[in-house]
Amino acid sequence: MTMVNGWVDVHAHFTLPLTEEQRLRQWEGLRAQRFLAPQPFSWSPESAVDYMDRTGIAMQLLSNTHVFSSQAVSDSNDYGAKIVADHPTRFGLLAAFPTDDPEAALAEIDRAQSDLHADGYAVSARYNEVFLGDERLEPVWAELNRRRAVVFVHPNTIAPPQLGLPVTLMDVGFETARSVVDMLYAGVFRRYPDLTLILAHAGGALPAMSGRLSQLGAEPWVPNPHNITRDEIREHVARLYLDTANAGDDAPLASALATVPRDHLVYGSDTGAPCNTDETLATNIRALRDSRVLVEGEADQVGSRGWDLFPTASRRAGRS
After folding, report:
1. What is the pLDDT along the chain (320 residues), one digit of tens a residue?
2. Domain coordinates of the chain in residue numbers?
3. What fold, for 7-317?
4. Per-residue H/E/C for 241-292
């Protein structure tokens, strides 16, 4: 087992307890979408703590964006808050909110902080077909900006296969890029500079597309209602934070670090998702440790950087 020392994982998932029948139905649904998992997936707080103990991860910031109604979001956040209450030094909560219903989203944002004491927020890049630049989300981004919130963005993995392959393999990366570009041209980043976004999977396809965006994105043939400039495109993309989930190899790291400052790279694992195993998680950590893109000792800096983004979690863990 590849060991680290006191890293904080900003990209870890939880699921609500399921019956065996529910687990089997979930497994059959995944296989129907060409995600050919050999057996049903299970997660528990105890298994997550065991993994962290074996690996040297100090804390996981838990998120669950794969619920698709306002009530399901609230129920999920309640369970996530209970996990944190039961294990306050090992877990934090990134509370979800439903971006297809701005009023419900605002209510859940407030409840998550005032009642559940969440450490931050998590959203799906596409939630019930709503992308994050949708004009109806204006009051939501305004409120999160007022709170100087940290928001984790994860693509929707519950979708039909593409080219006979599960969306988890490739299409999730394009979805993240689409939603962030949607926000860019909607002027969200211009209006709300105090908003901090962390993108899953090193931003997916966004870093690879960032050069094309900065070269062509302000050309007169591009619909650009807010007249976002070429300089703004570069500046707004560079404000993003990117996590390392399934992106610890040098190719995605090089692209990420050509897009954002080095101190905007944070450790994420994607644990708690059926696409990962102990072996794939260890492979990703080894890739970070052996990277020729990162300088000596930088992998440990990446692993610890999330403490600065989530100060309440850091205090619970005795890190500040």
Report:
1. 678 999 999 999 999 998 999 999 999 999 999 999 999 999 999 999 999 999 999 999 999 988 889 999 999 999 999 999 999 999 999 999 999 999 999 999 999 999 999 999 999 999 999 999 999 999 999 999 999 999 999 999 988 999 999 999 999 999 999 999 999 999 999 999 999 999 999 999 999 999 999 999 999 999 999 999 999 999 999 999 999 999 999 999 999 999 999 999 999 999 999 999 999 999 999 999 999 999 999 999 999 999 999 999 999 999 97
2. 7-317
3. TIM Barrel (3.20.20)
4. EEECCCCCCHHHHHHHHCCCCHHHEECCCCECCCCCCHHHHHHHHHHHHCCC
